[in-house]
Amino acid sequence: MSAAGVNSHLVCDPTIQQPCFDLLCHSWTLLNRFSTGQGPWRANMHKEGLTSSPLCDCGEQQSMEHIVDWCLLTKLDGGLLSLHEADDDAISWLKMAATKALAK
């Protein structure tokens, strides 16, 4: 039996090198956290007792989906699929908006 992972639809062929494989370690790690849905979002950190609130700066619960798809402060045009494709706009967003949102 095989179980599909979170966001497994992003990888069409796991035998080929995925986009952005040549990113610097911090960016590559953050991109993979978005792809797997496991990362330092405030909702996750709040569950672990590592932050006092699960809320984003916009006032909504901060999750991976919120940061990428919904937040008026950080939303990425094209959403998670665009981020996985790792074009210049997505990588710029990852380095600026996503990093800033998670820094607090």
The computed structural class is: mainly alpha
Main sheet record: none
Q: Are there runs of 5+ residues with pLDDT below 50, and where?
A: none
Shape: globular
Instruction: Please give the number of β-strands.
Output: 0
Query: Can you write the helix and strand succession as a string?
Result: HHHHH
Q: What is the strand content?
A: under 5%
Radius of gyration: 14 Å
What does this protein structure show overall?
This protein is an all-alpha fold. The chain has a domain at 39-104. The protein contains 5 helices and no strands.
Question: Helices, strands, pairings?
Answer:
Blueprint: H1 25-36, H2 42-47, H3 64-70, H4 79-85, H5 88-102
Tell me briefly what this model is.
By secondary structure, this protein is an all-alpha fold. 45% of the residues lie in helices and 0% in strands.
Features:
104 residues, 5 helices, 45% helix, mainly alpha, globular
